[in-house]
Structures are given as C-alpha cells and as structure tokens.
Write a structure and sequence with these properties.
Strand content: under 5%
Number of strands: 0
Shape: elongated
Number of helices: 2
Length: about 70
C-alpha cells in the first residue's frame, strides 16, 4: 500500500513537471509570435515572415516536417 501511494505521488509530481514544461514552452512561442506581430519596425510581410520563422524554429527543434492539427 505504501508503495502504491509513493508511486502515485511520483506520477503526480512528474505529470505536474511535464505540464509546467509544456506551458512554459507554449508561452515562450506565443510571446515570440506576439512580439513579431507587434514589431512596428517590420512591414506586414515582415511580421508574417517573423511569425513563420517562429514556426520553422519549432519544427526544427522538434524534428517535425509538418504540424498536424488534431481536432476532437
């Protein structure tokens, strides 16, 4: 019984850490996109290119060629 409680606590802690990591990464990418869109030194096309660079960097870091949209 004690082992089960310890295992559950370990799983909970790991899940919380993973969720925090995902939240931090998404917030970072959203901030990069927001900054690109708000950069008044760039033209409209320049802003779009800056956002595209954020997406390409994500794909490079994750090894993805394409981003799939999963809908419920």
């Amino acid at each position: 019984m004690v082992t089960t409680a310890v295992n559950r606590e370990l799983v909970r802690v790991i899940a919380e850490e993973m969720a925090y990591g995902v939240e931090t990464a998404v917030e970072c990418w959203m901030t990069q996109i927001e900054l690109a869109l708000a950069d008044t030194s760039l033209s409209t096309v320049g802003r779009l290119q800056a956002v595209r660079e954020v997406v390409e960097n994500y794909k490079h870091l994750t090894g993805k060629v394409q981003i799939d949209c999963r809908r419920a």
